[in-house]
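HOLO CASE FILE
Compound: 6Q4
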Amino acid sequence: SEVSGSAAERRWTLNDFDIGKPLGKGKFGHVYLAREKSSNHIVALKVLFKSQLQQSQVVHQLRREVEIQSHLRHPHILRLYGYFYDQKRVYLILEYAPKGELYKELQKCKYFSERRAATYVASLARALIYCHGKHVIHRDIKPENLLIGAQGELKIADFGWSVHTFNRRRTMCGTLDYLPPEMVESVEHDANVDIWSLGVLCYEFLYGVPPFEAKEHSDTYRRIVQVDLKFPPKPIVSSAAKDLISQMLVKDSSQRLPLHKLLEHPWIVQNAEPSGVYRS
Ligand SMILES: CC(C)NC(=O)[C@H]1CCC[C@H]1Nc1nc(Nc2ccc(C(=O)N(C)C3CCN(C)CC3)cc2)ncc1C(F)(F)F
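Model generated. Tokens follow.
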């Protein structure tokens, strides 16, 4: 039974939930296992302190996150069922992902098999095709923002950096003619940013480290803008996988492999579980 309705429909309060064990600490507060009393539905309750949100000036970002995520329905996107607030805190009622955080799993395994990596990348590509179809760009695809569902399937969470590109076009109000280059430039960053990030994620799944890692931020920045992509000799990775990554990590965003073409790439076709569920 569903924790009913979208973000706005129902007035939730803390009394509607039995609070369980802490699941961990998010950026702006703790996350608890919780059960909605009338439906017995298990959820994750993310508690955010208003003071911290105001201090960090992320209130508008949180509003956008709730607005966007509460309207998305996809097996590989974590549901946001609703929210409520009291004097000091904002509470997000989120889908509980029983198998926890992907980045911890990647740390434990060091790197994933090609089958596991391809299965995850294909499921994320399908989720991003769905988002882009709704003019939503995630903009923050990375291991820390991925959770693992009951069947071992990936769930994209944390839409804090996502944008609804329609808004940007609306704020551009029609003509670009009067905009300075830097604003026209920022309009350029489109849904293809998620293809780049998915390519970085695929590399990190296979090698255990991101492709442009460096000691200093300035060195990482340089390696990214120069697309200084190198494949280490170990662990051994198939040339098909390297080919896919090389087609995603392309500087010119319009030349990156489109997500629907990714799903037809030989490495994905030969390695990804069709269901999106990887069983070790
Ligand atoms: C995407 C976002 C950036 N990340 C987050 O929000 C993080 C911040 C803290 C928790 C997580 N948020 C969520 N976590 C879950 N499930 C979950 C998490 C951790 C464990 C786990 O390994 N333990 C409890 C272990 C059990 C064993 N002991 C030893 C360590 C903790 C098991 C299940 N479902 C929904 C959420 C959500 F997102 F809805 F809030």
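CASE NOTES: The pocket of 6Q4 is lined by residues 23-26, 31, 44, 46, 78, 94, 96-98, 100-101, 144-145, 147, 157-158 (CB under 6 Å). Strands lie at 17-25, 30-36, 41-49, 80-85, 89-95, 136-137, 146-148, 154-156, 163-164.
CLOSED: yes
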